[in-house]
UniProtKB/TrEMBL annotation, chain A:
Domain of life: Bacteria
SUPFAM superfamilies documented for this protein: SufE/NifU (SSF82649)
UniProt-listed InterPro entries: Fe-S_metab-assoc_dom
Record-linked Pfam families: SufE (PF02657)
Protein name: SufE family protein
Protein species of origin: Phaeocystidibacter luteus
Domain Fe-S metabolism associated as annotated: residue spans: 14-131
PANTHER family: SUFE-LIKE PROTEIN 2, CHLOROPLASTIC, SULFUR ACCEPTOR PROTEIN CSDE
Protein family: Belongs to the SufE family.
From TrEMBL, chain B:
Domain Aminotransferase class V: 29-397
Superkingdom, natural source: Bacteria
Protein name, entry field: Cysteine desulfurase
Record has Metal-binding as a keyword: no
Length: 140, 409
């Protein structure tokens, strides 16, 4: 996983373009959720819950001095698919790249329009939290 | 009694323009009536008519329009009185809605509450019939007690009897549970409360669209009503209170409309109902609500109850056959509401995909977190019927579930 954020988001936009029907897009999101690597159980603690999500979402970040690795989980599979998308784009990138990441792909694939307002807020909270971790590592 | 008037569902649906729209490319199947109902054309026409022909403040002006607005405003009060069979129109107070009605009583009645008095609510309550009483008890040093229920969602009346003591000053519970659909035995429970001298407040948000409510037959002391859940406008509701009680309670809010005379030394309050109606009211909402009441009564509440009972029976049977289905709330007396979970699936996921198919349901805890804890679920999927729903729409819901469940498994 060494491609840039730009390359990864372009891949995702292309993938979603293959599906016309939103049920098929959701099907794809669900399969991404199912494929999301398991988070270490020790990280599924209340401290790692993202505020602002109707379903529970745990996000954990690790930093090896160069890149940030994200792991995540959710009790709702669609939410898990959405966070899998974000993990796929941002995990393994440098803090600088994450902080400056252009994430307009979520609008481009129409995801934001197809999420309920609570879920869209949840997505914003996820992105904020991921950038927040990166910002903290950047200043280390 | 078996009803004899035919219930023309197609004709009824035609009166709701929104029901013919599409959502996500599919015909809308609206099953979130517990949250709010759609509005018949007669009601929205009444709003337009008010603004185009009358628009004026009520109870003040000497001029013609103000008089017309005041008359129309008071017509609704009288229609609502007749609808719930209250004795006097002055026993009907306009509020912002059910929550506002409950808060009004919780505050005003609270002024009469002493430390160590007890208030009883039930496990089935919406947060709006829990939190105001908690706040009142905290403010007054009173104690809040809770009637337990069984796994079907039926309140335990034996336990209720043991909670009722000479310390009990008020009992508050809903007529119909918003989360499970249980119809509570209001008349019986009210009689039990009155035997120990306690007042009774009913949250009628979910009952008014489905049942003929007779406050005198039920003998309740307070009854909270929401217009938007009974095909009326949002932002308006009512509090029924027995005259004797309303006279005894201090006003909840001060302002215009609610006074008799004001000097800097002392204000005297207006008579009922104005004592509880401070400020310019939701005039358009009150006036248009009358159109909803007329519309409901032209169909007949008994006909509505009868038709929705058919939907309940049909839907319960159809949903029971869905893979992994658990229906929460199986009280023998129940409204046409299906609260359920699918084994292994998050309610939110199911609701999201149903929405893609044009089916509007509600997911989550339905503002009843203590009830969800009692059921040991984080939330449910709730399909709540209105009088315009059909058996074909229930089939669409079932087909939708059969499509989305394999996707999520």
């Amino acid at each position: 996983m060494s491609e840039s954020i730009q390359e990864r988001t372009t891949d995702i936009v292309d993938e979603f373009d293959m599906f016309e029907d939103w049920m098929d897009k959701y099907d794809h999101i669900i399969s991404l959720g199912k494929e999301l690597p398991l988070i270490d159980e020790q990280h599924k603690v209340d401290d790692n819950l993202i505020k602002g999500c109707q379903s529970r979402v745990w996000l954990h970040a690790d930093y090896d001095g160069q890149n940030v690795t994200f792991t995540a989980d959710s009790d709702a599979i669609i939410t898990k698919g959405i966070i899998a998308l974000m993990v796929r784009v941002l995990s393994g990138q440098s803090p600088e790249a994450i902080v400056n990441a252009d994430l307009s792909f979520v609008d481009e694939i129409g995801l934001k329009d197809h999420l309920s307002p609570t879920r869209a807020n949840g997505l914003v909270s996820m992105i904020k939290q991921m950038k927040f971790y990166a910002l903290a590592y950047q200043s280390k | 009694m078996e009803n004899t008037i035919s219930f023309d569902i197609n004709d009824i649906r035609k009166q709701f323009p929104v029901l013919s729209r599409e959502v996500n490319g599919k015909p809308l199947v609206y099953m979130d009536n517990g949250a709010t109902t759609h509005k018949p054309k007669a009601m929205t026409d009444a709003i337009t008519d008010y603004y185009e022909r009358i628009n004026s403040n009520v109870h003040r002006g000497v001029h013609h329009l103000s008089q017309q607005a005041t008359d129309a405003f008071e017509v609704t009060r009288e229609k609502l009185r007749a609808h719930i069979n209250a004795e006097h129109a002055r026993e009907v107070i306009f509020t912002k809605g059910t929550t506002d009605s409950i808060n009004t009583v919780a505050w005003s009645f609270g002024e009469l509450v002493k430390p160590r008095d007890e208030v009883i609510i039930s496990t089935l309550e919406h947060h709006s019939n829990i939190v105001p009483w908690q706040m009142m008890c905290e403010r007054k040093g009173a104690t809040l007690k809770v009637i337990p229920m069984d796994d079907r969602g039926v309140l335990d009346l034996e336990a209720y009897q043991t909670l009722l003591t000479e310390k009990t000053v008020l009992v508050a519970f809903n007529h119909i549970s918003n989360a499970l659909g249980t119809i509570n035995p209001v008349k019986k429970m009210t009689k039990m409360a009155h035997e120990v001298g306690a007042a009774v407040m009913i949250d009628g948000a979910q009952s008014m669209p489905h049942l003929k409510v007779d406050v005198r037959d039920l003998d309740v002391d307070f009854y909270a009503i929401s217009a938007h859940k009974m095909y009326g406008p949002t932002g308006i509701g009512a509090l029924y209170g027995k005259e004797e009680w309303l006279n005894k309670l201090p006003p909840y809010q001060g302002g215009g409309e609610m006074i008799a005379t004001v000097t800097f030394e002392k204000t005297t309050y207006a008579d009922l109902p104005h004592k509880f109606e401070a400020g310019t009211p939701h005039i358009e909402g009150v006036i248009a609500w009358a159109a909803s009441l007329d519309w409901l009564n032209a169909i007949g509440m008994e006909n509505i109850t009868h038709y929705e009972a058919e939907l309940l029976e049909y839907g319960t049977k159809a949903l029971s056959e869905v893979d992994g289905m658990t229906i929460h709330g199986t009280a023998p007396q129940k409204s046409a509401l299906f609260s359920f979970n699918i084994e292994g699936l998050h309610p939110y996921d199911v609701g999201t995909l149903l929405d893609q198919l044009g089916i509007a349901v509600r997911t989550g805890h339905h503002c009843t977190q203590p009830l969800m804890n009692r059921l040991n679920v984080p939330g449910t999927i709730r399909a709540s019927m209105g009088l315009y729903n059909t058996k074909e729409e229930i089939d669409t819901l079932v087909a939708g579930l059969n499509r989305v469940i394999p996707m999520l498994k």
